[in-house]
Design brief:
By secondary structure, this protein is an alpha/beta fold. The chain has two domains: 142 residues, Vaccinia Virus protein VP39 (Rossmann fold); 188 residues, Vaccinia Virus protein VP39 (Rossmann fold), CATH 3.40.50. The chain contains eleven helices and 16 strands. Strand 11, helix 8 and strand 12 form a beta-alpha-beta unit. Helix 2 runs parallel beside helix 3, helix 4 runs parallel beside helix 5 and helix 6 runs parallel beside helix 7. The longest helix has 13 residues. It is elongated, with a radius of gyration of 22 Å.
Length: 368
């Protein structure tokens, strides 16, 4: 059966019924920056609060709002309900594809940002969206549906209070027959509900020593840096870096739960800031997402080269080794590779790491 054709919400006029139902104060939840700008440009109410979870998207949106002279505010929070019950209406612009669990989580959290009798509105690019009608009915009891221009517009009204409910999964895993660790994960963060196979490959190959200073780039919920800390020990330090604020909240929870005492989390979209000092790290780890023409991978490669000591080592896992080797070589890395679990771990090894690479490791048990 063919998948329904998805339209871009940034290229069509929002349904009149949607615009008529917006009441200030109102929030715009997620959505691509172009979708959000299109909605606000069309709405008679432009002083919205625009919620984003990721600094990279938020900064793009802020710039586009300024360029369009739209006086909306951008708020970046780990959880939507951190905005507080302040809104008469909230418009959710779900991704045209993406994580089902995040969409249901946003519906749950969105209930708690509405004031009494507030309305929750969803404008979906799916022409016959099958997720939201039933999910909204469970939360709000009633849901109204309108289809127009190949999109689906749904709305519900808050009628009574409802306890907060989190969508989260805890998973347990170990590396190389070592100690088992537990990690908390939530929708909207990398590798929700499981230990990513690429991260597992990276952790099996990376070579570290006690006392080293490690930076985990794009840390997600913190798995790679937490495993690294068990080698570097209490004299070492782990710096977790991500643009997703929910990921950093989870990293802090997981680091503390797994006994880390010397770590910090840094929220940045550009891998920069006063705490990321050039030539101050012994080890850099990265498991970048591969989209937007490898822009995130390139950012991690360039910034890791600047952050590492000249004797430092960089370990990055990929399924596209040829492209990544070229990028790493261009910045000055001397690249080696190790294949495992269907991935390639590319590495530039400092002298200490070269001494450690003689030993081989046995494959570990699967996630418990």
């Amino acid at each position: 059966m063919a998948k329904p054709k998805l339209v871009s919400l940034s290229k069509i006029y929002p349904p009149k019924t949607l615009l008529e139902r917006i009441r200030p104060p109102f929030a715009v939840i997620m959505g691509s920056p172009s979708d959000v700008v299109n909605l606000l440009h069309s709405s008679p109410h432009k002083e919205a609060v625009c919620y984003q979870m990721d600094l990279f998207q938020a900064e793009r949106l802020q710039q586009m709002l300024q360029d369009a002279n739209i006086p909306a505010q951008v708020r970046v929070e780990a959880d939507l309900w951190d905005l507080g019950p302040n809104f008469a209406s909230a418009v959710y612009l779900p991704a045209r594809s993406g994580e089902r669990e995040l969409k249901t989580d946003i519906l749950e959290q969105g209930f708690h940002i509405l004031n009494a009798s507030g309305q929750f509105l969803v404008w979906s690019a799916q022409p016959n969206d099958s997720l939201f009608p039933e999910a909204m009915k469970k939360i709000y009891k009633k849901v109204h549906i309108h289809q127009e221009q190949g999109t689906t517009f749904l709305w519900s009204q808050k009628m009574e209070d409802r306890p907060r409910r989190r969508h989260e999964v805890t998973f347990q895993c170990k590396i190389n027959q070592g100690e088992s660790f537990r990690f908390l994960s939530r929708p909207g963060t990398f590798s929700y509900g499981q230990f990513d196979a690429g991260s597992r490959a990276l952790c099996e190959v990376m070579s570290l020593r006690p006392g080293q200073n490690v930076v985990d780039l794009g840390c997600g919920c913190g798995t790679n840096g937490i495993y690294a800390s068990k080698i570097t020990g209490p004299e070492g330090k782990i710096t977790f870096v991500d643009s997703n604020l929910r990921a950093l909240d989870l990293t802090k929870l997981n680091a503390e739960a797994n006994g880390l005492t010397n770590f910090e989390t840094i929220a940045t979209s550009s891998v920069s800031g006063p705490d990321l000092i050039p030539q101050s790290f012994d080890i850099a780890l990265a498991n970048p997402p591969y989209f937007a023409n490898h822009s995130i991978a390139l950012l991690f490669i360039q910034r890791s080269f600047e952050l590492l000591k000249r004797s430092g080592s960089f370990f990055m896992v990929t399924k596209q080794p040829n492209e990544m080797v070229e990028l790493m070589t261009q910045v000055g890395y001397v690249v080696e590779g190790a294949e495992t679990r269907g991935y390639t771990v590319l590495m530039h090894r400092g002298p200490a790491a070269r001494d450690d690479m003689g030993a081989t490791t046995e494959p570990d048990e699967e996630d418990q």
